[in-house]
Amino acid sequence: MPTVDSTLRDRVTARLDEYKDRLLELSHELHADPETSFEEVRSAERLAALLEDAGFAVERGVCDLPTALTATYGSGDLTVGVCAEYDALPGIGHACGHNIICAAGAGAAIALAAAADELGFRVKLLGTPAEEEGGGKVLMLDRGAFDDVTVAMMVHPSPVDMVDPRGSSNAVGRFEVTFTGRASHAAAAPEGGLNAADAAVVAQVAVGQLRQQLRDGYRVAGIVRHGGERTNIIPERTVLEYEVRTPTGEELGDLKERVLNCFRGAALATGTTMEVRRIQPDYLDLCHDPSLMDAYARNLRATGREVTPGQNAVGTGGSTDMGNVTHVMPAIHPMLGVLGAQGMPHTRQFAEEVSGAAGDAAVLDGALAMAWTGLDLAADPQWRSRCVTARLG
What we know:
The structure is a single chain. This protein is α/β, with parallel strands linked by helices. 41% of the residues lie in helices and 17% in strands. The protein contains 12 helices and 12 strands. The protein has a 6-stranded mixed β-sheet. A 4-stranded antiparallel β-sheet has the order 8-9-7-10. A hairpin with an 8-residue loop joins strand 1 and strand 2. The chain is elongated. The mean pLDDT is 95.
C-alpha cells in the first residue's frame, strides 16, 4: 500500500482535534437524553447540526424515515460511507453505546473531509435509526441511500477491541405472534372460553422442547407482551414477541419455520387462532472486507492501542443491520474497546461505562482509526479502483 502523504494525515488528525470537544459533547448529550428506535428526533438533529457546522450538506428525513439523515462533502468517483447509530434501549438507555457510535462516526466523517478536496473523493455520513429494533439500515439500503456509497464503515463499542476480519455476527429474525381466543368468566362459565394464555404457555413449552434439537449457535428468545386482563376472565388475547438467530442468513428461514410450527401447534391444541407479524426486516450476518479491516486494525494500533492479530475471530453472538450492508458492498463493523469496562453491552453497568473517560477515548480513537482508513483507501489508486469497479459492477 502506498505511503499516505504525512501532511494529509496530519491535516485529518488536526481536523479531528479541532472538533474533539464538540464530538465528546455530542456523545454525552445523546447519553443523557436517550431515545429509542424511530424516536431519535433530538439525537438526529444534534448530529445534523454538527455536520452542517462542519461544512456538510445535510438532508434530514431521508428514505421516508423522519429520524434518518445523510450528510455529504466533496466529490469524486469514490464515496466513503460512515454509518452513525443513535437509538437507545428501552429502560436502560445507551447500554449498547450508540452514543459512541454516533460521535465516532461524526468525527471520522468530519476528519476525513479535510483530505477530500485534494484527493478527489466524497464523504457520506449516513445517520441510521432503529438498529436495536426496526432495521434502519436495511430500509435505507432498500430505498437507495447506499446506492452511491463505495465502501462503508462504522465502529461498535465492546469491552475489548475486535478487529479480525473473520469475526461476524448472527443473523436474526424478529416476529410477533397474537393468539385470539374467546373470553368467559373463569369461575362461572370456564367451558365457554378459549384460553389465549394457554396457547402462549403451550407455545413456550414447545419452543423449550425444541431447543434440545437445535444446532450449536442457534438462539431462540421471547417475551410475553400481553397475557390477559384479569384473573377472573379467561384471556381472549395474548401477544408474544420472539426472535431467532443463526450464524448465517441462509439458515434463518428454516429455524424460524420450526419455531413458528410450535405456535401453530399451540393454536391447534387450544382452539385459538394465530396471527404472525414481522417486527423488522431480517438482519444478515456480518461479512467484513479483509482489506478494509486490516487497514483499520493497523490504524487503530497507530492510535496507541494494543490490538492482537487474530484475536476474537469468532462471532459476537449479537446481531446488527450493518450485516446487510456488508453483503452489498465492501464494509466493516469492528468492535471498539471501551477499555477497562466490566459490564457487557445491554447492561446497566455498560451504560454507565460508555459515558466515562474510557468511552470518550473510544470516540476519539475510533474516529481517527476510521478516518485514517478512509484516507489510506483514497490515496491508493489500485485499491480505490478495485472498490469503485466492484460497486459499479
